[in-house]
Each structure stands twice: as structure tokens, then as C-alpha cells.
């Protein structure tokens, strides 16, 4: 029987939520790794039982966990993330050079074709690749050393590489995003990289035409249209129809265009979801109303989705990796909040229910559609 | 010689070990040799107590023994005699941090 498995990373452990195709009754398994921060968990599209998890702690550093049985049991694999060569410096908050230092893994992106290949986006910003199921990691240093690296400056959350998007039509093409450097693309499997930030406008930097310095929060793609990208930036929701070569704003009628996550419907490439957040200093929804906004026109025209979501006194946040969609016939949309709720809509966002109410603050949500 | 080591809760869970472990050190029991032995016996602890490459102690990890803080001693100093003799354990402690 088909079903879904939702992988939830929280500030204090990992949870695995499972349901059948109706997505009404849920089993909650966890916490795995209690007490540790789980920045991200994601399964291999090739082998759904293979799941990677980023486990970290301010005391004891970074661990990578791997499951080969769908999240029932876990094994620590390799956790040595050493920058390639002389790491050099990036720019610190005060504009002075600061040594590149590994802190944690923000995002794990398993290969679309090989269960043992997985990419890791880390802080301080760099991209690592493992070809042996996470046992060993090698930096794809062409990104960090492509030229603008010394000018990269951390956002409030750190200098983190938080988004990795693999092109399903071209194994050599990968998109990544860094706060607050911007978006980059490789067309040769990670050897060389190009900043793709034309059209972004950021009030926080002096030169609007600067090739780096933009605080990209998240990029989403529909697999059937890999050249069409949607971006939630610090401020502004953006769209590119040419693989990031040029962006234009599609914030339209959103109540605020600040936010973190962005997702695309599984079966409708022009249907996009965001969760507007009041501002960069007010990390909660406008008017205390938790609203997902959906555009069925690829942006610009947005409708509020509220049925089942709290519409008063709600002051949670939704982080960049905490929204996902399943690929069931009726597309499911999921998101987790800083208040510990994980919401599901099994009808593309029309109606929402909380799967769980009281988890630790949710950092990431991924979903697997199981055969 | 066998050195007794008490690990903090999170590292016990990670290593699937009990509250106290024993590691064998062949000569000159120093902190460095004990940590080398711990990481050989429990490879999943590599990088959690000290840096993989530089072997610098992680900022919020402390080493105590015999009511002394050894954290700032040279890792090549001899451990206290009572630790070497097995009368006292070496304590690996997660430092107090937070509210």
C-alpha cells in the first residue's frame, strides 16, 4: 500500500512520521538522537530506505547519520569535513577578513541516480561530496575558490550553504545558495561555478548589480522544468526561466515578501507555495495569522491558504528547509514551525491539519512518497 | 595499562557505550594517548572531543581528573598517578553553556 514518510529535523532530535495514502492517521517515531540539533534529513530517491541525517551540537560538533532501513536504525558515518587546501578567509560581519572554519552541515542532498552519492552544504559555506554513502567527504572547492569567496559575508544565521538543487535532466548541473553570498550554478559537476544573481535587488548591499552579497533563502524547482527556478530571498520572491541567468520578481500581492521556504507542487509546475513572514526582525507571520500562500500562475497572483491553520495569536516561524511536497495523486504539502507543529495538507493546500503539535522547534521537513 | 574514562551522556549514546569505558594505553599515559585510544576503540567519536586534524580540544569540552581541570594542560603531560593506576577515572565533560 502506498504511503508517505515525513522526516522531521528539530532542535532536539529527529522524528519520522508515517501514514498511508489518506494522510489522516499518523504514527510518530522518535526522538532519534535526542538532545542533538538535526538540521536536515533526506532520503535517497534511488533507495527510499537510505536516509542521511545531519546531527550536530555546540558541544560535540558534527555527526552524519545514515539509515538503511527507512529510519528505524542509524549508523554514524564520516564526519570529517576538511576544506581543500589553504582555506583562506571570507569577510566577517565587521568587514574584516575571517578564517574559513567548518561549523556544521545545513543540508544533505542525495544524488538522483546513486544512493551512495550525497552532497553536503556546510557552514562556513562550502559544498562537499561523498561517493561512498557518507563515509568520506571531499570538498568541491571550485565553488569557494571561484573568485568572490573572500567577499562572502555571513547572514545572521552564519555563512551557510543551505540549498542544493540537482538538475534531473543534467547530472552535471547543480544549483546552490549561500546566505549571504547568493546563488551559484555549476554545469560541470562542481568543478567550476558561476554566480547567478542578476536581477536580484537587496537593500542591504550598496551595489545592486553586485554579483554576490544577496541573501538567498531558498530555491525550488519542478523536475519537469529544470530551467525554471523559484527563489525566496531575504526579501522578494523571484523567478528565473533560464536556469538562473536572469531573475525577476514575482512577489505580487503577497502581504510581505520576506520568508524562508518555497516549494513547487508535485504535478503543477506553475503552482508555488511560500509562507510570508513579517520581516527580518519580526520572524513571525503578519497579524498573528499563519498563512501559506499559493500561486497557480508561477508567481505574482497569490491566494492565502488558511483552512486549518491558526488565524489568531500565532507567532511561529517556518524555516527554509521546513517545507516539502509529496508526489501522491492529490499532492500533499507539509511544513514545520518553530513552535513544534508539523502541518499537512493532502489536497494541495486547501485544507490543513496538524500531524503533531508539540515537537521541539522544527528545522527541516522532507517527505518521501512510498510505493 | 587500562585507563578509565567517563564520557558525557551524548557521547555514550553515540558510542553505544556505558557510563565508563576503559582504554588500553601502552606507554606514558598522556591525554593525547588516551584520546587516541578512545578514537581507535570508538571511531564514531572522532571529531566530537577534539578536531580531526589539529587535535585541538572542542571549545565546550573539558577534561577533569582527581578534582583538577586538565583542559588547559599540554595533551602530552603525564596524567595524574591515580588515573594511571586506575584508582580514578578521567572525566570528559560537556562544559556548562547556556542558561
Topology summary:
The complex is a heterodimer of chains A (371) and B (99).
Chain A: E1 3-10, E2 13-20, E3 27-32, E4 37-43, E5 51-57, E6 61-67, E7 75-76, E8 89-91, E9 97-99, E10 104-110, E11 118-123, E12 126-130, E13 138-139, E14 160-166, E15 174-179, E16 182-186, E17 194-195, E18 216-221, E19 229-233, E20 237-240, E21 248-249, E22 259-264, E23 272-276, E24 292-295, E25 303-305, E26 323-325, E27 333-336, E28 342-345, E29 353-356, E30 362-370
Antiparallel strand pairs in A: 1-2, 1-30, 2-3, 4-5, 5-6, 6-7, 8-9, 10-11, 11-12, 12-13, 14-15, 15-16, 16-17, 18-19, 19-20, 20-21, 22-23, 23-24, 24-25, 26-27, 27-28, 28-29
Chain B: E1 2-6, H1 9-15, E2 20-24, H2 31-41, E3 61-65, E4 68-69, H3 81-84, E5 90-94
Structure overview:
The complex is a heterodimer of chains A (371) and B (99). Chain A contains no helices and 30 strands. Chain A has strands spanning 3-10, 13-20, 27-32, 37-43, 51-57, 61-67, 75-76, 89-91, 97-99, 104-110, 118-123, 126-130, 138-139, 160-166, 174-179, 182-186, 194-195, 216-221, 229-233, 237-240, 248-249, 259-264, 272-276, 292-295, 303-305, 323-325, 333-336, 342-345, 353-356, 362-370. In chain B, strands 2-1-5-3-4 form a five-stranded mixed β-sheet, with helices on one face. Chain B is globular, with a radius of gyration of 12 Å. The interface between A and B is medium-sized, with 14 and 19 residues.
Number of helical elements of chain A: 0
End-to-end distance of chain A, in Å? 7 Å
Please state the overall shape of chain B, judged from the principal axes of the Cα atoms: globular
Overall outline of chain A? globular
Strand tally of chain A is 30
Q: Major β-sheet of chain A, in short?
A: 4 strands, antiparallel
- How much of the sequence of chain B is in beta strands? 15-25%
Order of helices and strands of chain A: EEEEEEEEEEEEEEEEEEEEEEEEEEEEEE
For the sheet with most strands of chain B, the description reads: 5 strands, mixed
Rg of chain A, rounded, reads: 19 Å
β-sheet strand percentage of chain A: 35-45%
Largest interface: A-B, 14 and 19 residues
- As a percent range, the share of helical residues of chain A equals under 10%
Decide which structural class fits the backbone of chain B.
Answer: alpha+beta
The strand order across the widest sheet of chain A is 3-2-1-30
The stretches of 5 or more residues of chain B where confidence is low (pLDDT under 50) are none
What do the pLDDT scores of chain A average to? 96
Uncertain regions of chain A: pLDDT < 50 for 5+ in a row? none
Helix-and-strand structural type of chain A = mainly beta
* Strand and helix order of chain B: EHEHEEHE
Q: What percent of the residues of chain B sit in helical stretches (DSSP H or I)?
A: 10-25%
